[in-house]
């Protein structure tokens, strides 16, 4: 499942031999725990649906949100779930425990690999969320780390303000699926790990088979180009200087907002990623 992501890490990070061994053990534990995760997530999905929320909530002095929290501790992988301000659901207490996921250790000269592993972990759970079609349950679901705020949403594979569901935190209405198609585990990882924008060039296909569209990261700029395959003419449609700023900021018209909208447009059908690996340039 993780071969391409492992390849990306080896090509983009300086990893010593001990670090590679740690990564292999981490990925191996994810693969071995996938069946268990699918079974538990399926049970969670059967219990927590928009149509069943009134039966699951206990009376409170205020109206709570419909968000299902996947709780984990800082720097740990084990997870439990709770609906908004409810107590932890004992039926799913530590449904992923410390014996399921290998916690890799990296020396400081291996860069930011520890944080990347959490992105991979979140992507893995989100991929199973998508596989089981839990987006049809109609409620926001996501990971929280020692907090009452969801830090990562499975619904659109995004952190904090990057997620459209972060803006819907107080909604009591049923929420819908944002994408028209399933994403690969690699695409979910790109979305999750978006701040890194791992690919320097992404080939996009347009509705016109004679037009090739390319999103290209050139130095500190991102450039969208169209190539007419019949004439060979190139039209530079848009070019923006890339200034990402804080990972918690997603302001209208900002560069990170531009990149996210670019990605969302590919997923929503305006443009589709050409998943031929030869079309990726590192």
Strand content: 15-25%
Radius of gyration: 20 Å
> Helix tally?
6
Order of helices and strands: HHHEEHEEEHEEEEHE
Strand element count? 10
Search tags:
alpha+beta; 282 residues; five-stranded antiparallel β-sheet; 2 domains; globular; 6 helices; disordered C terminus
List the helices and strands and how they pair.
Layout: H1 3-12, H2 17-47, H3 53-56, E1 68-72, E2 80-83, H4 113-131, E3 141-145, E4 152-153, E5 158-159, H5 185-192, E6 201-205, E7 211-218, E8 221-228, E9 234-241, H6 255-267, E10 272-273
Parallel strand pairs: 1-3
Antiparallel strand pairs: 1-2, 3-4, 4-5, 6-7, 6-10, 7-8, 8-9
Helix pairs in contact: 2-4, 4-5
Describe the protein in words.
With 282 residues, the chain is α+β, with helices and mostly antiparallel strands. The chain has two domains: 3-193, no CATH class; 199-279. The chain has six helices and ten strands; from the N terminus they run H-H-H-E-E-H-E-E-E-H-E-E-E-E-H-E. The protein has helices at 3-12, 17-47, 53-56, 113-131, 185-192, 255-267; strands at 68-72, 80-83, 141-145, 152-153, 158-159, 201-205, 211-218, 221-228, 234-241, 272-273. It has a five-stranded mixed beta sheet, with no helix packed on it. A five-stranded antiparallel beta sheet has the order 9-8-7-6-10, with helices on one face. It starts with a helix and ends in a 9-residue tail after the last strand. The relative contact order is 0.12. Mean pLDDT is 75; it is low at 195-200, 242-251 and 267-282.
């Amino acid at each position: 499942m993780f071969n391409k992501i492992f390849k990306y890490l080896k090509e983009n990070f300086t990893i010593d031999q001990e670090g590679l061994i740690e990564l292999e053990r981490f990925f191996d534990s994810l693969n071995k725990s996938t069946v268990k995760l699918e079974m538990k997530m399926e049970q969670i999905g059967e219990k927590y649906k928009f149509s069943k929320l009134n039966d699951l909530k206990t009376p409170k002095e205020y109206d709570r949100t419909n968000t299902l929290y996947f709780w984990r501790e800082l720097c740990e992988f084990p997870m439990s779930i709770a609906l908004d301000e409810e107590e932890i659901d004992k039926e799913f207490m530590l449904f992923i425990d410390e014996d399921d996921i290998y916690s890799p250790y990296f020396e400081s000269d291996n860069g930011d690999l520890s944080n990347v592993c959490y992105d991979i972990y979140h992507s893995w759970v989100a991929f199973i969320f998508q596989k089981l079609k839990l987006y049809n349950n109609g409620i926001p679901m996501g990971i929280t780390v020692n907090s009452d705020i969801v830090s990562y949403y499975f619904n659109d594979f995004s952190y904090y303000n990057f997620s459209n569901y972060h803006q819907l935190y107080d909604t009591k209405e049923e929420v819908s699926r944002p994408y028209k198609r399933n994403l690969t585990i690699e695409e979910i990882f790109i979305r999750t790990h978006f701040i890194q924008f791992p690919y320097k060039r992404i080939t996009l296909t347009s509705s016109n088979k004679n037009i090739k569209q390319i999103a290209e990261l050139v130095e500190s700029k991102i450039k969208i180009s169209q190539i007419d395959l019949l004439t060979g003419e190139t039209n530079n449609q848009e070019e923006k200087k890339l200034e990402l700023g804080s990972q918690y900021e997603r302001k209208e018209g900002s560069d990170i907002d531009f990149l996210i909208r670019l990605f969302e447009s590919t997923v929503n059908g305006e443009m589709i990623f050409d998943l031929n690996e030869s079309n990726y340039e590192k």
